[in-house]
Specification:
The complex is a heterotrimer of chains A (about 325), B (about 260) and C (about 350).
Chain A: H1 14-28, H2 34-72, H3 80-98, H4 102-129, H5 134-157, E1 172-175, E2 178-181, H6 182-204, H7 206-214, H8 218-223, H9 228-253, H10 260-274, H11 280-300, H12 306-320
Antiparallel strand pairs in A: 1-2
Helix pairs in contact in A: 1-2, 2-6, 2-9, 2-10, 2-11, 3-4, 3-5, 3-9, 3-10, 4-5, 4-9, 6-7, 6-9, 7-9, 10-11, 10-12, 11-12
Chain B: H1 3-14, H2 17-20, E1 21-32, E2 35-46, E3 50-54, H3 61-69, E4 76-81, E5 84-85, H4 91-97, E6 99-102, H5 114-130, H6 136-149, H7 165-178, E7 183-187, H8 195-210, E8 214-218, H9 222-228, E9 231-236, E10 239-244, H10 246-251, H11 253-258
Helix pairs in contact in B: 4-5, 5-6, 5-7, 6-7
Chain C: H1 5-26, H2 30-55, H3 62-81, H4 90-112, H5 117-136, E1 147-148, E2 154-155, E3 159-160, H6 161-184, H7 187-197, H8 199-204, H9 209-228, H10 231-235, E4 237-238, H11 240-243, H12 246-259, H13 265-284, H14 287-304, H15 308-317, H16 329-333
Antiparallel strand pairs in C: 1-4, 2-3
The chains are: A mainly alpha (about 325), B alpha/beta (about 260), C mainly alpha (about 350).
Chain lengths: ~325, ~260, ~350
Amino acid sequence: MGGKSAHYYPRRPAKAQSFLAKTKALLHTPGGLSGCLMIFSLDLLINAVVSGILIGGFYAAVTSGVSLSFGILDIVNIAHPAFIILGSYIAYIVNANLGIDPILTSIAVMPAFYVLGSGIYQVYYVSFEKRGQESLRGLAFFFGLLFITEVTLVLYFGVDYRYVEASYIGAAWHFAMLDIPFRILVPCLVSLLLIAALQIFLTRTFVGRAIMAVAQDQLALRLMAVDPIKIKRIAFGISIATASLAGAFLIIIQPVEPSVGREYIGRIFAICVLGGMGSLPGTVIAAMLLGIVESLTSTFYGPSWAPAVSFGFLLLTLAVRPAGLLGR
Amino acid sequence: MSMAEGASTASTAANSAAARALLQVDNVGKRFGGFVALENISLSVPAGERLGLIGPNGSGKSTLVNCICGTLRNEQGTVHFAGQKLDGLQAHQRTHLGLARSFQLPRPFVSLTLADNIRIPLLYTVARRRGSHHTAHEIEERCAKLLNEVGLGEKARRLPRDLTQVEMRKLELARAMAAEPKLLIADEAMAGLTHSEIEDILSLLVRLNEQGVTIILIEHIMSAVMSFSRRLVVLVSGRKIADGRPEEVMRDPEVERAYLGQ
Amino acid sequence: MTVRTPVFLLVWLVISAAVFAGSLALGNDYIFFAGYVVLQYVVLGTAWNILGGYCGYVNFGSAAFFALGAYSSVAIYKLITENDFYRMPIPVLMLIGGLVSGVVGFGMGYLTLRLRGAFFAIATLALAVVLQTLVVNWDFVGGSRGAYIIRPEQIEPIGNYIRYLFLLMMVLAVAGITIARLIEHSRLGYGFASIRDDELAAEAAGVPTLRLKLIATTISGALMGMAGAPFPYYIGYLQPSSTFGLDYAVNSIAMPLIGGTTSWVGPLIGALLLGSLQQIATVTISSAVNLLIVGCLLVIFVIIAPNGIVGLVHTYLQRKPEDFVGRRRVEAEMPGRVP
């Protein structure tokens, strides 16, 4: 229990840890060691920045679903992290029992998540959006879903940390002074693929363009004989489907227990707002920025401080530039 | 009568026309991204005026109203009201000064009864302005009187969801009137109403005007605008293209071309 | 029909005294342990409702405000332990806790309330995570290991200390519902309702919306902090993971929404009902299961009964739908005082 926050980067490369220790030792050594300090710091700095970028890629995947639902559809789905954790547990169950790769599992499960998402939107639409009660009761509804998912997982699996096995977990790529663990690199790359695919879908296909239009001009869509509700249902389904994949990434990167999702709420919405609400390229940039800052924070101040970074980011964005980085 | 009053009258007379105007809009500009919604709008409305503001859809009428009332911030230009600069004041502060509006699409307080809808401006604007203590009973009477004036007296205890579109518009007007404004901006208060309903609302507005309230009427229905307005302003694509007596404005070839079609 | 506030207060104080005397007569201190938690939820639910129910702004960070109150008590306790024991009476701790939470509530509101409501909700969610991070890293108040508070066994006239805490929480609960009711019937209450319904129209009617929202977040936050301040003395051992637990957040939302959000009665009914239910269920079933039940009830109620139990009773009593005119019926007949 005591290590509630210490799990943040539980499998952080031992090398980085030792550098941190060395740097601290140097700091406490009297005498002109500033030269050495700079070299070690530079090494630490570069490693932190690179791992921040990689983690940022993963954050982008985690956020892409919310960029769709909150950024474009204006549905404040605070239960999104719970669906991500659900994805993690599905990947874990299949991996533990059948030994199948978590990413493959999550891709196979995506259609089911899509159906789940469409169903949830239907309930949300009928119960709240149609009645104009989305701001209070709609939010409470998603909060209830978040809560139910989390408690159900606790009841079935307990609060133990779960993790998956795959060939690329544990391996790392050493390059000059860098070391890049594959368990972060692989999710990052697949995540960028996912976002590229989403971006192409949103800009090049008819349904995608209808999704982009649905928030702005429902009347125009109706005139084109497109049902805006159907478009929203599809979009929300896709948004939840991305949670399946993000869940697999999450459990590859770190061990997961049911309440881990909560830590991602601040992060996800901070990235979504900072990225300009619904812009996928903006999401990637904001995610990497947050990843770098968090990584630097946990390298130089300790991992237990990292969760505060996203909140600081969020408040700063809201106070200074609510339109986000790439916003108008 | 007294010397002081005489002196003040003289000084008022010496002031420019701008200072005497109740509402003075100078070079107001507003853009949304790259889209220029308003460009260099200047407008002077003296107290007691009945002004019609017309223009095609998207010509910037509502944007202008929003800039005057503080719902939107104009990037350029200034607005003076009753001799006071409005820049930087929030919407509710402008209402306190005596600037009231009705919304193009009625925006009632849906969980409050009609009487309570009226009560909000009474509690937050009128009570505050006079600094006097109204008894609950007086406020109750004011609510009833205002609702009676727009013909909603019998529904005082109902919720807005029980109202028809017409009644919603009347409620919207009654709520704006409740703030006891010096200037009332009625934003398309008559869209979708029948001829007799339009007559009702027009006579209501004229009555208000006779009581000393300056009125800006934004309207698509030309017959209503023409019968109500003593002066007409035309906006097209965010620019003011005409301003003057209604008959003259309507004869203006530019207005005919840009607004009424060929 | 409408009872004047002093009378209302008196009635509730009499009821409270009766409940306290009744509990004493039962002779089992367990009832005070359980009752304390229920009363704590009455305060949390009422506080949440002042912002959520009246103004329509959702606060997911109840746990954070509650924990702020609890940890200000711990910090003061730690400061004092080094010099002198128990010199700070708990009512004073409650005031300090309320002050701290009220200030944080105001700050949060100031940063986010100028934006859309959703941002405020999200920011409150994140606030809980961050405050938890701060507390976990703050060794003075025990960090992640938690902090022990040694409370006295007895207190002078009342006997067992838990009875004293119960009594304090009861007074706070009565104060809470009185404040809520006072707001509801005042000019402020009408202003809050106009904000909940349509902020743009409220501004146009002269309502200073930002100022009113800040008043609401401050009152609401302060009440939550006051509810949290005695908690370390109740629990004896305060741990970040349980103090910031999701159950506080979910309960303080679920109780008003299940009870009904438009009047002070709703959160009271919701808290008494759900709170007692949970106290029973925690003993008989597991605590995880009863939280699951609360979550499910919340979802079911927001979908099926948007006006909560109060709304259900209301519609049941008034079968004729055309007579149903909503929350202001009583006051419309008997107008409230106007400042």
